[in-house]
Design brief:
By secondary structure, this protein is α+β, with helices and mostly antiparallel strands. The protein is 22% helix and 41% strand.
């Protein structure tokens, strides 16, 4: 009887090992399509009626050879400028430390499949808006293929949850105006969804309007694995995986 019990236990253990191995080693789901930004709906800021009348009167009184505002200048004063993140020129990455074969190692996972839109009026930064930011989790990759499969098949379950999303709720620290070449810092508070778990997260952002049609910057936040129930599989030679994960978005956005 004892031998049968031990034999049954061994069979169950082997079955579990085989199931875990299959879960980790099977080919992850591929990205369904190139990522695209969810359009950000913005309201045009119309100038007051009095201002329009005054402008008309002034224009009529001026010499016909006087210079007029360019389209870019008119858009900057009358509406929000919309910029769209360029995946080809941007990168999302996560960083955390672990003991790998007894050596403390920083694990870095990256992808360029990130999309979103940003709108602002250079003359009134307080009116800035940020749309939903999406990241295709199926394209995240580290320097180790075995780790990549574990991340996608088990930790993030990307077969069922292809996208990580950040839905901004409020922007703090933006005021005044900005010119080309100037850098501003601010924070964005919103909901970060990983798999089927959503938590409130704050990103610290540093952004520079590098030209009339380009905006570049970096956004950072730190999240806890426990808050998202991200369980690291038990793997030989890997130990003491850090609880905190740093999320970094380095972006270049162009006028939409």
């Amino acid at each position: 009887m004892l031998k049968r019990f031990l034999a049954l236990g061994a069979v169950v253990a082997l079955a579990l090992i085989a199931l875990v191995a299959y879960s980790v080693l099977r080919a992850p789901a591929a990205a369904s399509e190139p990522i695209e930004a969810i359009p950000l709906e913005v309201e045009t800021q119309e100038p007051p009626t009095e201002a329009v009348s005054a402008t008309t009167e002034t224009t009529e009184a001026q010499d016909t050879a006087a210079p007029v505002a360019t389209a870019t200048e008119a858009q900057a004063t009358d509406s929000l400028l919309v910029f769209e993140i360029s995946p080809a020129d941007s990168e999302v990455r996560f960083e955390l430390d672990e003991d790998l074969r007894g050596v403390r190692t920083t694990v870095v996972g990256t992808t360029d499949q990130v999309a979103g839109q940003i709108a602002f009026d250079p003359a009134d930064l307080a009116s800035a808006q940020v749309g939903i930011i999406q990241i295709n989790a199926r394209t995240l990759a580290t320097d180790n293929d075995f780790r990549n499969r574990a991340i996608q098949n088990q930790i993030l379950d990307t077969g069922d949850y292809e996208y990580i999303t950040f839905t901004p709720e409020s922007i703090q620290g933006l005021e005044g105006s900005t010119r080309v070449g100037e850098t501003v810092t601010f924070t964005i508070l919103g909901d970060l969804t990983i798999r089927d778990v959503t938590q409130e997260v704050t990103f610290s952002v540093e952004a520079t309007r590098v030209s009339e049609i380009q905006l570049a910057g970096t956004a950072r936040a730190t999240v806890s694995r426990g808050d998202y129930s991200l369980v690291i599989p038990s793997v030989p030679q890997v130990a003491n995986v850090e609880e905190e994960i740093e999320l970094i978005l380095e972006f270049l956005a162009a006028a939409a």
